[in-house]
Amino acid sequence: MSKKVRKEFVLYDSREEFEYEDYVEFCEINGIEPDEEGSDDYWDWVWQTRNDYYDDMMANLSWTKIDYPLMIVGDLGLWDGRHSIVPVPIVSEGYGRKFHASDYVGYDVPSMKAAIKKCCEGRGTLDVDVHYEDGLIKVCAHHHDGCNVFYIRKLSKKGIKGMQAAANKHEDCNPKEWWFCKIKRDEIDF
C-alpha cells in the first residue's frame, strides 16, 4: 500500500481563527484570570499567538534542507489591477559567493527563510499566509486593495546559469518555466 502524500499544506496563516476556549485554557495554565471574549487582553493574546506561530515557522525554516538559489515571481493586486513583479533571485550568502555577479539578493540565512521574509516585507505577520503547493511555496499578502501573490520557486541548474547571465549583463531576469524545478515536500516539512 502506498503512502498518500498531501500536495498542499499550510505553513502559516495569519487569518487563522482562535477560539475563546483556547484563550481561557492558556489563562488557566498560566494562573491568569481570563477576561471576557473580545476584551483587549483576549486580542493581545490572539496577536501574540499569531506572532509566535510566525516566529516558530521562521525558526523551523532554519532547519529545512533548502539552502539553494530560489526565485520569487508573482504579482501585486492593486486598485488598478494586477501587476507582475520583477523576478527576485534569492541566494544564501554562502552559496552567493560562488557567483561573480553583484545583482543577486544575498542573505546570511537559509534562502527559503530569506525569501519568505522578502515576500512579507511591509506586512509583518498581519494578513499573510504561506502554503506549500505542489513543488513551490505560495505567499499571499492581503491588503485593502486586494492580495499580493508571490511564488517562491527553486532554480534548476539551467535557471542558475540564466540568472547569472542576466546578472552579469545587469539585466532583469526573464525566467522561463524550464529555469525551475520542484521543491520536494520533505525539504520543507518540519
Question: How are the secondary structure elements laid out?
Answer:
Elements: E1 8-13, H1 20-29, H2 40-61, E2 70-78, E3 81-84, E4 88-92, H3 93-96, E5 105-107, H4 111-120, E6 128-133, E7 136-143, E8 146-155, H5 157-168, E9 180-181, H6 185-188
Parallel strand pairs: 4-5
Antiparallel strand pairs: 1-6, 2-3, 2-4, 2-8, 6-7, 7-8, 8-9
What oligomeric state do the depicted chains represent?
A: single chain
Overall structural class, as computed from helix and strand content, comes to alpha+beta
Could you state the order of secondary-structure elements as H and E? EHHEEEHEHEEEHEH
The major pleated sheet works out as: 9 strands, mixed
Write down the domain tally.
Answer: 2
Number of strands: 9
Low-confidence stretches: 96-108
The average pLDDT is 82
How helix-rich are the residues, as a percent range? 25-40%
Instruction: Please give the alpha-carbon distance between the first and last residues.
Output: 24 Å
| Morphology | elongated
As a whole number of angstroms, the C-alpha radius of gyration is 19 Å
> Number of helix segments?
6
| Strand percent estimate | 25-35%
Q: What does this entry look like structurally?
A:
This protein has 190 residues and is of the alpha+beta class. 33% of the residues lie in helices and 28% in strands. The protein has helices spanning 20-29, 40-61, 93-96, 111-120, 157-168, 185-188, and strands spanning 8-13, 70-78, 81-84, 88-92, 105-107, 128-133, 136-143, 146-155, 180-181. Strands 1, 2, 3, 4, 5, 6, 7, 8 and 9 form a nine-stranded mixed β-sheet that branches. The longest helix has 22 residues, at 40-61. It starts with 7 loop residues before the first strand and ends with a helix.
